[in-house]
Amino acid sequence: MDRLLITGAAGQLGRVMRTKLAGLADTVRLADRAGLGTPADHEELVQCDLADAQAVSAMVAGCDGILHLGGASTEGPFEGIVRGNISGLYNLFEAARANGRPRIVFASSNHTIGCYPQAERLGPDVPFRPDGLYGVSKCFGEALARMYFEKFGQETALVRIGSCTPEPTNHRMLSTWLSHEDFASLIEAVFRVPVLGCPVIWGASANDAGWWDNTHLGWLGWKPRDNAEHFRAGVAEAVPQPGSDKSMARFQGGAYVDNPIFKE
Ligand code: NAI
Ligand code: 15L
User: What is the distance of C-alpha 168 from the center of its chain?
Assistant: First the structure.
């Protein structure tokens, strides 16, 4: 790839992928509304708000692939979610349409389905059951991507990330954990496969206690290597098991299910 764009590059996952994906393209364009530090030789820095359509168009121009991590990444007041995840996503897909339809990895979330009980195993086609406005915004993102695929052939991977952290740190994450390594190898697979389409991909490592079925993805050639089970003893020692009446033990979205509708 000549030029890869990473949005949300100043964030938690953006900073990790900035390093891990350095070899994926000759040039990596890093974008965020927050500061991005000093560029390495292979990097270009763009400071822009996703809600600014003109700036987003310039950000996307000349890119062959997009890792879209930018936007609101947790529950919060509606206005911030709209800015990053509704207006911002529309601006991104319009910019992609005007600039040769570079393939997109969309960082969706398990909070699109957070109200499912933990006892259920989910395939890629289950109806949405979002657990808050943030989850609803990711449902919007997936639907928007699907529409751009159906009408314009825009290829996008809809990656419903579980919990992408260095290690699992609570009991729920023994099921939802996605290691940084497995996320990076997933992104590489998405950009490598000749034909992508617009698949739902569960963004989780090969966790023994996992809830999500990725068996529809054989053609992608992605094999997650990590397994949260190796951390079970450490988690059990460090964190008390939540009571069976608590959302952390009942719902796939965990405590997000308990969030109110936040106001500014
Ligand atoms: P983060 O909050 O650390 O990073 C998001 C970045 O987006 C920040 O640097 C922020 O400045 C930028 N941003 C927010 N609104 C913006 C706007 N309007 N214009 C331009 N930039 C804006 O989030 P994190 O953890 O790195 O997650 C990255 C993506 O992955 C997010 O889209 C999140 O929803 C998704 N995700 C992450 C999970 C995780 O476990 N970290 C789990 C599920 C989904
Ligand atoms: C997400 O969607 C968030 O971006 C992340 O911060 C975590 O809360 C994650 O889900 C999770 O469910 O653990």
Answer: 17
